Fold this sequence. Notes:
By secondary structure, this protein is α/β, with parallel strands linked by helices.
Amino acid sequence: MKAFVVEKYGDATTMRAAGVPDPQVGAEDVLVEIHAAGVNPLDVRIRNGDFKAFLPYRLPLVLGNDLAGTVVQVGPSVTRFSVGDEVYARPGKDRIGTFAERIAVHQDDLAAKPVTLTMSEAASLPLVALTAWQALVERAQVQPGQKVLVHAGAGGLGSIAVQLAKALGAHVTATASTAKVDLVKELGADEVIDYRTQDFTELLDGYDVVLDSLGGENLAKSLGILRPGGQAISVAGPPDPAFARELGANPVLRLAMTALSARTRRQAKRLGVRYSFLFMKASGDQLRELTPLIDAGNIRPVVDRVFPFDQTLQAMEYVEKGRAKAGKVVVSMT
């Protein structure tokens, strides 16, 4: 089958189209014919080798972390799905590879596609929707009336997180550039901070939760707008000891992650707030909880551009260079 593979870690020149064997289907696996695949900054970072210390993929690697498609085969122990079902998923981190014609996904990581969405719309959601759910519902346990700040509210993650936080009953503030303020308001944000002309640290205070996708100075400044006991959850900040334990990392890697996040954790402790790093996990069950919100219109995908499958390399470049105006980029096989 045709796929886009990373031959060695590095820049865009290390990825190419190739013919690869069809996936092997295990007892609890579902073979999916992929109709569309989301393109994420995570794909760029995996290709660059940013996560090779704790995600040691065997190269060459088929890249891609989101999919929507149709079931074409099921393993003998599969109970949830049948041939012909329309599904969407973020495969488990050890079994990525959605930039391909087919993929085998464990049944636990798969869910029925929202009926109101096209394949391209559905493919844009799993990774960012699961990240938002795991941050706001699973970890922060956001309650009605709480104050939530979502950075980069027009981005792939931010655009979904704003809608989810609003659906949870929170007072939602988001940051965005001048041109994207109106879009983020349309997504449900109660307040939008134009980061080009405004400093969120001068305008905000007493927040319960910050969802950070930028890291660095932005994360450090975010700690200061939290109420005592509030928490900052980052997908771009330094990995912390809890993540190292969850990963089952070796002692050297655990020490490295502890050291990397030491400054941020010290700052949080001094302010009486909490910091945690989030690397999302695949979950069909959580997608099934999100699907009713999607079909009811409480969460709608924001798709910036759809590329044909044979232009996957161009789609990667588009994401890498930050050309998307809002939301997600998708490649479509049909």
